[in-house]
Amino acid sequence: MDASALGRLTQRYPDEQWNRLPADLRNRLNAVAVDHVSRLALNIPTYLNLVSLAVDEMPRNDSPQPGGC
User: Fold this and answer.
1) In contact, 40 and 5? CB cutoff 8 Å
2) Which of the 8 DSSP states describes residue 68?
3) pLDDT by residue (tens digit) across 8-31?
4) Tens digits of per-residue pLDDT, 47-61?
5) For residues 4 and 52, what is the distance between their CA atoms, to the nearest angstrom?
6) How crowded is the C-beta side of 6, counted as CA atoms within 13 Å?
7) pTM listed for this prediction
8) What is the pLDDT of residue 60?
9) Quick one: which H or E segment has residue 11?
10) CA 45 to chain centre
11) Residue 68 backbone zone (phi > 0: left; psi -120 to 50: alpha; other: beta)
């Protein structure tokens, strides 16, 4: 959710439009972005654990790939 929200902020306010915003609005939006980044940083261990669990459940194929890949 937080990564998606950050993506939407960057789409909504590209550089040209961002530069036209009043400073107080830029400061408020920066605070919103920092909040999302902070939550992402806090949740990284959980994300990594979920990915690790999913990868651990995937079947392994250690046979050589055609074409040397």
Assistant:
1) no
2) G
3) 999 999 999 999 999 999 999 999
4) 888 888 888 877 877
5) 22
6) 12
7) 0.62
8) 75
9) helix 2-12
10) 14
11) left
